[in-house]
User: Which sequence fits this backbone?
């Protein structure tokens, strides 16, 4: 099995150095490494040239954004699986690729765990992937993009939507899951990712609803709207107010509303 590692960089010389150190330290060497640089002016190109012997393909030219750069890498990649390791991010340890390539990989998308770090490499939090992935998971969460391995066939029909600024990874996840591509949890830490990187920003929240409307049929979107309603309303506070209002509502709540609340907590937790 051949793996393609794709690294996207733009004016992040120091972060790119950390990524390079991590990739060349891997004990498993049978992979291709693609670096797509957006025409950096901070010395990143010189750094790439310095490590040219480790890199299968690289280019430094202006692009239309991160997803345009990622699509460039996808079109070049020849591996059975693709993994995106952006500049500033690095593998959890030197055996990550060895463990993955020795695994019996047959699924379309294999997702692992990740560690959030600051610019000094200090651990801030652990991101643990869900055991079972459902569409409803994406209403309030997402997968860690750097901790994923995509089978190349995922990109035979789909690429990243270059019209989105930040949420195209979520759009791709939902598209693949809704169209019955297989997802499997790989319960290993894959990467440590930088808290200041683009993947950690929240600016894509306004892109989520258009994504849902574009991908999912009305019946599924209606369920999504119900989930949003229960997510955005603190039902515990609402029910407490009803219970405290008068005897009639206290009685009504005990009979009807409280069981409904418990059901909502069970299904949408």
Assistant:
């Amino acid at each position: 099995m051949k793996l393609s590692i794709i690294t996207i960089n733009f004016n992040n010389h120091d972060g790119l150095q950390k990524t390079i150190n991590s990739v060349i330290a891997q004990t498993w060497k049978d992979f291709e490494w693609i670096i797509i640089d957006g025409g950096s002016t901070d010395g990143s190109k010189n750094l790439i040239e310095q490590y040219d012997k480790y890199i299968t393909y690289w280019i430094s030219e202006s692009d239309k954004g991160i997803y345009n750069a990622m699509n460039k890498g996808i079109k070049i990649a020849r591996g059975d699986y693709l993994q995106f390791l952006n500049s500033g991010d690095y593998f959890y340890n030197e055996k990550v690729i060895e463990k993955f390539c020795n695994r019996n990989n047959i699924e379309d998308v294999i997702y692992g765990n990740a560690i959030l770090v600051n610019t000094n490499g200090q651990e801030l939090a652990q991101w643990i992937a869900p055991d079972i992935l459902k569409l409803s998971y994406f209403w309030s969460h997402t997968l860690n993009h750097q901790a994923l391995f995509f089978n190349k066939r995922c990109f035979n029909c789909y690429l990243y939507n270059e019209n989105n600024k930040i949420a195209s990874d979520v759009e791709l996840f939902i598209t693949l899951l809704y169209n019955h591509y297989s997802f499997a949890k790989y319960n290993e830490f894959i990467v440590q990712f930088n808290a200041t990187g683009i993947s950690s920003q929240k600016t894509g929240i306004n892109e989520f609803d258009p994504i849902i409307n574009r991908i999912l049929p009305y019946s599924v979107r209606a369920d999504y709207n119900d989930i949003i309603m229960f997510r955005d309303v603190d039902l515990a506070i609402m029910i407490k107010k009803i219970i405290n209002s008068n005897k009639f509502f206290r009685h009504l709540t005990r009979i009807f509303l409280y069981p409904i609340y418990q059901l909502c907590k069970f299904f949408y937790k």
Summary: The two ends are 38 Å apart (CA to CA). The first helix runs from residue 13 to 24. The beta strands are 3-9, 31-37, 57-60, 81-84, 90-91, 109-117, 123-127, 148-151, 183-194.
